[in-house]
């Protein structure tokens, strides 16, 4: 086998064929790399490779047409049967020789992501090399198909043309299947036509016309009998089969940075299948029945392996920001579910938006209570209305339905793929919010009702950031302002009271109404920060629950603040655990100091737990004055607490209060910044106060903006010359010299 492999490989590199292939391959890749990456400034090499998959339709027929067609034409294929090496080893040697040539080209372009990264530090190498792996596997599968077709004919030109047509049809198969009607009768007719076509192609393997005719009659009868018994089985069946034959479709996963192991298995089984069929074509048949049985068993194993891995669908998300991996919060919520939910993806087969599709199919894996199904809105125009959805449903929308209660939620494609435009610069950024919206929809359909949060107003409170408002909406919670001075009590439907840093004090009546609400076993988030005004009534509410607020502003020592000593980066001292997943920076601006009330002065029923604290280098100024912010005599020494969790259970009623010490921490200026964790602190606090059996979660949207690089014009010209002219030209020159010198001998 090794000798044959070396002989075949030598034929490529001792002639112009191998060097011409590499030169053409690298020149085309070089043109696209220069246009997309160096001139276009795009840092994503996977996008470049994604646009180059058409290369296989052109290159593979040329590369494989002579593999076995030449042997058939020269009648040397008969010698293969009498060789001391088995036919399997001969076929593998020929295949691996071609694959080695393609591997050489793949290894060459593997250097390109490193070159691109030298011009941009945020270039994601993991997704780039995932696409390189997928590109190689796609090429390996196409080469196996080309080798099989080459074994069917004696003409190299016919082999090239048929391979070209076969690969072209395979690459277009998804588009073709998307144009087919999805009704059962049409699909049955298509299958009835495809079955004899498949048998005609397989006749060379079975080598028995009687068996082919028998299988044809039995197969056609079975197709129409099944249709008569249960026609619904044929809905979109032909389209699904055609999509399985779309060999380039599996490359999309790698292109998006997903190392999908079922796609790896798919390509490897394609290689094994066509190598097996090639062996069956060349091997002297023992009998048609024997060949048919062996081929049927092997095909069944291939199909079984793909069905198994397709069901398990194991994968590794290598995309930037793990775009297609469900977060731990979603997994925890799914693990708490007891009701069955179906996610209906309203889309035609083959017309899916990949970003939405790739996230949705992850939900099937995380819980037996969640299933994902596609529904073609064109074939089922009344489907959405039957699920209780009002209004128009567009392609790529999602409908989440509780199978028991029939409660439903409609999520639009624009909500899952929101775009934000900065009108001052005119630049737009697109986000991926599929998980955030769908997980929220699941929670809504399994919840009995939507919760209500009231935010105290009219005391100069800081407005909560839009990121927090959006998060509360995803957590199945409506938010409404509360002017407590104009009502007699906190509304009965209030399940969470939020007081976000009043600048002026609440009245005694408001204080009593807040305490009455909390004593009744209700929950609150109370935020207090530095203010020049005295807040005795508000401080009494905090004191009643074991927390003392100190007048003044806390400043930090070096290394414990961001930009300004008053912009504190607190240390997490969370004894409750709900802040333990916070990994990034928290910034608490203009914080006041909190302390725990002495045990002798507070009720025994109170359980007070510290959440956040300053460092020992911190200090508190009672009346800070500009330009006099350094520590001075008389300033109180730290450390100070900046957050507490308080729990009290009295007469079967449990009150939970979370206190923070920075009025501005949850405003737009800080909680609106994606690089800070302030919004997540607030979201975690709300989730910790939840009394639902299934905890509310809010999943942040993810940005999938492309990375960009900046290449000087002179270097653009240099790389264009190197990748498109110098390297391919050098390979052609080397190939010509080798061919010329060998010819002179």
Beta-strand percentage range: 15-25%
Provide a count of the helices. 28
Structural class: alpha+beta
Shape: elongated
Question: What can you see in these coordinates?
Answer:
With 745 residues, the protein is of the alpha+beta class. It folds into 3 domains: 2-182 and 236-318 and 711-744, no CATH class; 328-428, Glutaredoxin (3-Layer(aba) Sandwich); 448-691, 3-Layer(aba) Sandwich (Rossmann fold). The strands form 7 sheets. An 8-stranded mixed β-sheet has the order 10-9-11-12-24-23-20-17, covered by helices on one side. α4 packs antiparallel against α10 (156-179). The chain is elongated.
Give keywords:
single chain; 745 residues; alpha+beta; Glutaredoxin; Rossmann fold; eight-stranded mixed sheet; four-stranded mixed sheet; 25 strands; 49% helix; elongated
Write the layout of secondary structure elements.
Layout: H1 2-13, H2 16-39, H3 45-50, H4 55-64, H5 69-73, H6 77-82, H7 87-109, H8 112-117, H9 125-150, H10 156-179, H11 184-206, H12 209-229, H13 237-244, H14 251-255, E1 258-260, H15 261-282, H16 288-312, E2 315-317, H17 328-336, E3 341-346, H18 354-360, H19 363-366, E4 370-375, H20 383-386, E5 397-402, E6 408-411, H21 413-416, E7 419-422, E8 427-432, H22 434-446, E9 451-456, H23 466-474, E10 477-482, E11 496-500, H24 508-519, E12 523-527, H25 536-544, E13 547-550, E14 553-555, E15 561-562, E16 564-568, E17 571-572, E18 588-589, E19 593-596, E20 606-613, E21 619-621, E22 636-637, E23 641-650, E24 653-660, H26 668-671, H27 678-689, E25 702-703, H28 713-744
Parallel strand pairs: 3-4, 9-10, 9-11, 11-12, 12-24
Antiparallel strand pairs: 1-2, 3-5, 5-6, 7-8, 8-25, 13-19, 14-21, 15-16, 16-18, 17-20, 20-23, 21-22, 23-24
Helix pairs in contact: 1-7, 2-7, 2-28, 4-9, 4-10, 7-9, 7-15, 9-10, 9-15, 10-13, 11-12, 15-16, 23-27, 24-25
């Amino acid at each position: 086998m090794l000798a044959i492999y070396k002989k075949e490989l030598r034929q490529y590199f001792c002639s112009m064929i191998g060097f011409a292939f590499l030169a053409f391959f690298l020149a085309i890749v070089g043109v696209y790399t220069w246009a997309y990456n160096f001139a276009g400034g795009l840092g994503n090499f996977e996008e470049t490779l994604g646009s180059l998959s058409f290369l296989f339709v052109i290159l593979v027929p040329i590369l494989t047409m002579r593999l076995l067609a030449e042997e058939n034409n020269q009648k040397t294929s008969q010698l293969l049967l009498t060789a001391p090496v088995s036919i399997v080893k001969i076929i593998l040697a020929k295949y691996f020789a071609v694959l080695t040539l393609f591997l050489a080209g793949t290894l060459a372009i593997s250097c390109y992501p490193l070159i691109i990264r030298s011009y941009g530090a945020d270039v994601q190498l993991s997704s780039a090399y995932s696409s390189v792996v997928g590109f190689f596997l796609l090429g390996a599968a196409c080469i196996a198909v080309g080798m099989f077709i080459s074994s069917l004919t004696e003409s190299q030109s016919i082999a090239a043309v048929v391979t070209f047509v076969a690969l072209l049809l395979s690459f277009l198969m998804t588009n073709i299947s998307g144009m087919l009607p999805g009704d059962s009768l049409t699909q049955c007719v298509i299958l009835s036509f495809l079955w004899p076509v498949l048998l005609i192609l397989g006749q060379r393997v079975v080598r028995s016309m009687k068996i082919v005719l028998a299988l044809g009659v039995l197969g056609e009868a079975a197709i129409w009998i099944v249709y008569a018994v249960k026609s619904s089985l044929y809905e979109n069946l032909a389209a699904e089969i055609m999509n399985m034959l779309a060999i380039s479709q599996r490359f999309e996963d790698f292109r998006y940075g997903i190392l999908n192991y079922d796609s790896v298995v798919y390509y490897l089984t394609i290689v094994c299948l066509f190598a097996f069929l090639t062996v069956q074509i060349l091997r002297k048949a023992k009998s048609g029945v024997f060949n048919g049985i062996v081929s049927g068993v092997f095909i069944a194993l291939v199909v079984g392996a793909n069905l198994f891995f397709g069901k398990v669908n194991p994968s590794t998300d290598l995309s930037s920001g793990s775009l297609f991996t469900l977060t731990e919060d979603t997994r925890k919520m799914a693990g708490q579910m007891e009701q069955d939910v179906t996610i209906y993806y309203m889309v035609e087969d083959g017309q899916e938006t990949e970003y939405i599709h790739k996230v949705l199919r992850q939900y099937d894996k995380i819980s037996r209570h969640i299933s994902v199904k596609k529904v073609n809105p064109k074939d089922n125009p009344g489907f959405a209305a039957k699920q209780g959805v009002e209004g128009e449903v567009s392609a790529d929308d999602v409908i989440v339905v509780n199978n028991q209660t029939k409660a439903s939620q409609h999520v639009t494609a624009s909500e899952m793929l929101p775009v934000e435009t900065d009108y001052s610069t005119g630049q737009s950024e697109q986000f991926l919010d599929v998980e955030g919206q769908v997980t929220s929809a699941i929670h809504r359909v399994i919840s009995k009702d939507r919760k209500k949060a009231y935010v105290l107003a009219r005391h100069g409170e800081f407005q909560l950031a839009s990121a927090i408002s959006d998060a509360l909406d995803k957590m199945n919670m409506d938010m409404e302002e509360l002017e407590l001075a104009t009502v007699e009590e906190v509304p009965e439907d209030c399940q969470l009271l939020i007081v976000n840093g009043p600048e002026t004090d609440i009245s005694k009546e408001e204080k009593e109404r807040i305490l009455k609400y909390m004593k009744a076993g209700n929950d609150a988030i109370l935020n207090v920060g530095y203010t020049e005004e005295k807040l005795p009534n508000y401080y009494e509410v905090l004191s009643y629950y074991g927390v003392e607020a100190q007048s003044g502003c806390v400043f930090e020592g070096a290394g414990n603040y961001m930009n300004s000593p008053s912009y504190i980066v607190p240390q997490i001292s969370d004894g409750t655990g709900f802040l333990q997943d916070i990994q990034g920076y928290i910034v608490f601006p203009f914080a006041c100091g909190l302390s725990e009330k002495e045990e002798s002065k507070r009720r025994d029923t109170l359980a007070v737990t510290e959440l956040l604290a300053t460092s020992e280098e911190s200090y508190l100024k009672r009346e800070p004055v500009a330009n006099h912010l350094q520590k001075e005599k008389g300033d109180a020494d730290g450390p100070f607490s900046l957050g507490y969790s308080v729990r009290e259970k009295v007469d079967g009623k449990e009150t939970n209060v979370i206190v923070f010490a920075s009025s501005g921490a949850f405003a737009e200026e800080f909680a609106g910044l994606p690089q800070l964790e302030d919004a997540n602190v607030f979201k975690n606090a709300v989730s910790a106060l939840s009394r639902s059996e299934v905890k509310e979660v809010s999943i942040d949207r993810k940005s999938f903006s492309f990375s960009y690089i900046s290449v000087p014009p002179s270097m653009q010209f240099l790389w264009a010359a190197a990748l498109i002219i110098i390297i391919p030209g050098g390979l052609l020159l080397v190939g010509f010299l080798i061919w010329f010198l060998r010819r002179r001998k």
